[in-house]
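Before the break, one more example. Copy the sequence into your notebook; we will annotate it together after we see the structure.
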Amino acid sequence: MTDTLSHRGPDGTGYWENPEGEVLLGHRRLSILDLSNAASQPMHFRNRYTIIHNGEIYNYKEIREELEKQGYSFKTQSDTEVILAAYDHWEDECVEHFDGMFAFAIWDEELKELFAARDRFGEKPFYYFFDGHAFIFGSEIKAILAAGIKKQANLQLLFNFLTIGYVDNPERPEETFYTNINKLPPASLLYYNPAGRELSVEKYWDIDINNSNKKITDTEAVEKFNSLFTESVRKRLRSDVSIGTSLSGGLDSSSVAAIAAVQGAHHFLPKAFTAVFPGFEKDESVFSKQVADAFHLEQFTTAVTADDLLKNWDKLCYHQEEPFGSASVFPQFKVYELAKQHHTTVLLDGQGADEILAGYSKYYKWYWQELFVKRKLVSSGEIKAAQKLGVQESFTVKNIMAALFPDFAAVILERQYLLKALRQEDLTRDFIKLQSKEAYYSTPSNFNLNGALYFNTCLHGLEELLRYADRNAMAHGCEVRLPFLDHKLVEFVFSLPSHFKIRQGWTKWLLRTSMNEKLPASIAWRKDKVGFEPPQQQWMQDKKMQDLIHEAKKKMVNEKILKQDVLSKPVRPLGSTAADNYDWRYLSAAAFT
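Here is what the structure looks like once it is written out:
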């Protein structure tokens, strides 16, 4: 099992079995804090607890000081030992004290119980298999398969992916693409008692989306955001190995790079890593160079091509383990590879900002619906302001109906999805019949901007992007850290009224205003959002790529998922954000079924 995870932990291996042989723990180490052997895992504490841990607790120094005042002493400078002491002191409430990305499991030899936890947003993975007899868990699905478990494709999620492009079920967050393998949902605790073979999971954190601070002024909001964001970056620069930053040229990664460059740190190298697409209209290299030059970052670029994707396809799928909806996963894979080639182990990244601060154009309609209900849509001038900035989103009778009758709209949307899925002409009738009894499509429970942001941040959307990032980084023995996902920062942003997120047609107004004097105006107030988009349409026109897609279709036809006549249809090349990107989905799904 640990051998399959060697890429995640190239710096060491450790095993431990308790005297009765009830539990066997294995760990692969990626050394980042306290590089000495004393910080190796599995790590023991007070002859009672044994831990295996993946991730980082960014505020471990502050927690350590607090615990030292309570009489605890420490043998290492690691965050892992701090988790153990925190668990001894606060028991399962220890997670409420952690600011970090983590998945860990602690065996209590006295109580004969396993306790496990996963971070609030799902930055770090935790998969498990439980059949009532054996409980097997690991950071990746391949570790569980190495224990002799055979994967069984989750055909309902396959149907979900082929029709709308997602591999998750917001109603059952533990589901994966395989029916017999679950994941511990984000912000969740797990308890397992081997003697009674009892397994339970519970949530420990959530966001209150109705707790709006309506009295806060613009100045107060900007100052508080700046303070929290800067502190988040500062803590994520804690490391005993080299740290750099990924830089796309967009607002989010540029903001992280700007704060990191000003903060500095002992191991922060002024290095930036960027994927470029020469000749592609959405190539952002001009913008990323502006930021690199402004903050004296040494920039390294990787030009990503269709040939690269073809050569790395099997490797990419091996590391991702579940289908992915577009080719944008691959440039990220190449960025982390580039960082490793230049001896940079930790990268800061801007993920999460779009979900918490309303960065996508799809969020306009949610904000406009909210203003319509409050009878402020016309007087606000928001639609006209957005149109002046080149925003293409429209506000129609359907949006008005959704604003006035949200519950009814949710039912209609779900029904529309199911009807569209049932009409997917490439799927065999038998496959549709078997899988479409339950629609996995769902909508936000609150039809306003905060409701939509909460839905994408905590229920459906962000976790999938975090999976891509974790697997891509760890494939190269790198760690990715995300300052926008500091939970105190996220809680603060969700406590703000919607006009701090979208204002005068601008998305992410609060971030833009906060970075106004820190970033070049051409970055802070960019109108065109690209969103790490590669030339997927161009790649799909490549003859070898089309051959690969054809072979994928053949496989799906043989498995009676696709109809025979799909093989005579030409490949339809589409961009990575296209809604009906079926040929890409067939290519991706075939690799995992």
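The two ends are 22 Å apart (CA to CA). The CA atoms of residues 77 and 258 lie 29 Å apart. Try to locate both features in your own notes.
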